[in-house]
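Working notes for the structural subgroup meeting. M.R. asked for a predicted model of this chain before we commit to crystallization trials. I am recording the input and output together here so anyone reviewing the notebook later can reproduce the run.

Input as submitted:
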Amino acid sequence: MSKEQTFIASIDQGTTSTRFFIYDKSARIIGSHHVEFTQFYPEAGWVEHDPMEILESVRSCMTKALDKATADGYNVDSGLKAIGLTNQRETVVVWSKSTGSPLYNAIVWMDVRTSSICRKLEKELPGGRTHFVESCGLPLSTYFSAVKLLWLMENKEEVRAAIKKGDALFGTIDTWLIWNLTGGVNGGLHVTDVSNASRTMLMNLKSLDWDEATLKTLGIPAEILPKIVSNAEVIGKIAKGWPLFGVPIAGCLGDQHAAMVGQACRRGEAKCTYGTGAFILLNTGTVPVKSTHGLLTTLAFKLGPKAQTNYALEGSIAIAGAAVQWLRDSLGIISSASEIESLASKVDCTGGVYFVPAFNGLFAPWWRDDARGICIGITRFTSKSHIARAVLESMCFQVKDVLDSMHKDAGEKGEVKNEKGEFLLRVDGGATVNNLLMQIQADLLGSSVVRPADIETTALGAAYAAGIAVGVWKEEELFASGQNIKTASIFSPKSSVEWRKKKVDSWCKAVERTFGLADLEM
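Returned structure, recorded in token form:
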């Protein structure tokens, strides 16, 4: 007999895979599926995805998650109230309005082909690298969507011709998915949300609309841009030809913003998501805080058209889990990502080895696109266990770099501490199942790390946003004090202050050695 209940679903479209989750009203997963898709590396520093493959991965995940839940006796078809969407940010697609076909592959957030465009703009604009910071909170960087769009406009005739004809549509991955899910060429909705829009460099952080002065300066036509909506409102309904026809799409957030909602981060609280990269966000409340220590001022979330806007300080790390994938896929040191914990646990230190994964440059707080990866301190004593441990440490050092900057920007009044006077870092993402990684993180920070029972908080945050929009949940209930801490695992530091200082000093020396290596001869 089928179980009549209320359900919310979420699409979690990440950098390497797509996932679909179905939740009951208690936020318990009752069906899920995930599909990995192809990563394309046409040239050194270039990273692309096939937008059509991403679309098919979403279809497959929806179908199979629904089948699993139905097989377990859940009547999802009648009980599903809404779908939320969360996605890899900054990755861009330009497609034809009339045919629905992409005009080029999606250019992924970590792609650095736009470095020459950034350097050119830095020289030409009066404000240099920080010219747009006042309006959008972001420096000129290969990371953000606007310069990727400029590259397409400058280098792809198909894109230029479609813009001239009025046939081009631009968007981040959320926009591409929503347009297709709501009908595509047959009336698909061309929208994005405030969090994804805040990562393009084109949205004004205060007005939450496209910044006319920025568009004019960069020569980007406003007509190719999507409409900006809040993170929690009914956007449109799933069109015919898709699973779950007629179900409203009611939540949309960039992945890191969704994780903030999933972790219920209130003002003064921070989370770090360990995925392909690592992303630390601190909720600064209803006022944007300008960073003077290399961080980004960005939007956190806006859970409804009339809801208050929450802002955040963010530190973005380009390579975290991707370094583990590199050990597996490129070097063959491990055969699966989960093996790194046992391999690194065979030694109690790195033996003086330091690994800096500046594969495509360094993001916060360094912002050096001329940096390249290094592994130093190698001796005949060095084993693959030392290298594996150095890779894990590299993730934790980068997070510490960002948090140190965050503490300086936010100040004492901008952070919430527990009764022991500790600032707790909430963590999530696939890599956090690695207990050794979490302990190293706590040891290097000198403060506790809190891992929730459900580490898939990105998908959960998108489901929460959709549920808020259709009245399944209330925002104030989800953000109730300490709700995620109660069921969490807490990793406390076991290191000395002296050890921590020596390690950090050595790490900083290693980081400095990565600078200016981008032009090394192939």
